[in-house]
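In this supplementary section we document a worked example of the pipeline. Step one takes a protein sequence of length 346 as its only input; no multiple sequence alignment statistics are reported here. Step two produces a three-dimensional model, which step three serialises into structure tokens for compact storage. The input and output of this example are shown verbatim.
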Amino acid sequence: MAGVAIIGTTTWGVTLGVVLARNGVDVRLWARTERECTQLKNAQHHADAVSAITLPDKLSITTSLSEALEDTDAVILAVPSQRMRDNIKTISSYLKGSMLVVSAAKGLEIDSNKRMSQVIADEISPSFWPNICVHSGPNLSAEILQGLPAVAVVAAWNELIARKAQKLLNTPSICLYTNSDVIGVELGGALKNIIALGAGVADGLGYGDNAKAALITRGLTEITALGLALGANPLTFSGLTGLGDLIATCSSPLSRNHYVGVELTKGRKLEEIIKSMSGVAEGVGTTIVAHNLAKQFELEMPITEKIYKVLYEGLDPKKASLELMEAEARHELMGRRWRLFSLFRH
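The serialised model returned by step three reads:
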């Protein structure tokens, strides 16, 4: 029977472990400390959604990396994006054979502006680079743990590797599609969190569904423009990791990024909100990277710019929203240094 190791006792890491184990896969979840290991075994996870479920028999928890990674077909890194580098460094010497290395993190590294697959490649042997995969899509843990259906995508540069990951990780709870646009799949999963922060602001201010639909749509255009500048296929962003993840994350109160946006409209400070949360809102850090990249490529990304100013420059969320509405409207596919409009010219 196939075996999978999961690095990261995040809510998403535990969720993936549970659904894979329910599907008959032998899963070993690595916990950093004995205390964390004991808490998980006793259903004392920090997330209520995980604490409420019984761990399947095929899911074991260990503090031993050698035990977790022995005879496994894949290792899934379900860790916060800002901790990805430390974690892949920790396990790099345990990689062997044809083991798949799967990133399940939806963020960008602040110091380097890199995607997670790039961070992983930095820290492992080049011989394993072809085995790097990315798992992304509209997946809310609480719903998946209840057995509700979801769909995701797994991407790798080599379609055969993507199909290998698909066969191993596909479950009745999460139906997996494949893609070879690693850049687009990663950027879609990361950048939508910025727009979800804005959707939370819109909901917190009571602006209604028309305004939120506009925010999602214009946000998708910004994501696509940056993705195109970084080498992604623009069609990827109309798929699961772009539009699909945007809809789920911007619409659901289960989204941590949406929650942060709502709380900001109540006058709470970002630091206070973050400290009160049990998980990481990846959009908070990703906004810094997207803001840096927009400046680097001289791209016009007004939503990202306003979210950055709200988070890091103290701009009032309501004022930021009004400024967006007052911006000069042009053709919706045109923006400074965007190449979107040219795609539709013959």
